[in-house]
Amino acid sequence: MLKKFNISKALIRRYSFLLFFLIFPLTSCVETIVISTGFGAGLAYREKTIDDTRSDIKIATKIGYKFISNGLKNFGNSIDITVNEGRVMLTGIVRDPQKAKLAQELSWQAKGVTEVIDEIKINETGKIAPKDIASAIFDYILTAEIETKFALAKDLRTLNYQITTVDNEVYLLGVAINEKEMNRAIAIASKARGVSKVVNHVILANDSRRGKE
Questions:
Q1: Angle at 33 between CA 207 and CA 83, to 5 degrees
Q2: How are strands ordered across the β-sheet holding 115-122?
Q3: Number of domains in the chain
């Protein structure tokens, strides 16, 4: 009985560890809420203002509701929404091109959107296989791993970046202080085991698209 109990505890620890990595990236879309309520020191390293944060949350929420009501957030069509200073990045997989087009149109309807970046993949077979589920789980783990590497990098202001992974391809959105920091972020993401490609949508702090003086 004692041996069986020990094995059970080991399994619990093992799967708790896995669940941490699965849940952690799922909260990235609301990281701005957490930061605004408790991590004042972190705000000093953020390019995004409190007002920008609130606006982005509203944009993501409105688009999310539109996606749900139009069948763009389900088992067959799953589009993720990432927002940074009004720039909306769409990632995920849909079963036909019309769904991707609809996602773009609905995104532009949200007040405050300044750009829509379409990185949606089309599943030409229209079928969901077990390997797709396994791939999605690995993507979440990979995102969490890169987020951890970003957090540990002293030369990277990690709170300015948002990371999404689809089919081993990593998408970066956010604001870099300069090109050196942006290249550093890309390099860290590229070196993570399992990454096949890094798609960069990070802009510099002085980019005119930010609409700041």
A1: 35
A2: 78-84, 87-94, 115-122
A3: 1
CA 206 – CA 174 distance, rounded (Å): 13
- Two tokens at 137? 């789980």
Residue 65 domain flag: yes
pTM metric for this prediction: 0.77
Question: Which amino acid makes up residue 82?
Answer: T
Between 128 and 12, where is the model more confident?
Answer: 128
Neighbour-count burial for 56-72, b at 16+ CB within 10 Å, e otherwise = bbebbebbbebbeeeeb
Q: Is residue 6 part of a domain?
A: no
Q: Which of 186, 144, 154 is nearest to 45 (CA)?
A: 154
Residue 39 belongs to domain spanning? 12-210
Band of the pLDDT at 2, cuts 50, 70, 90?
A: very low
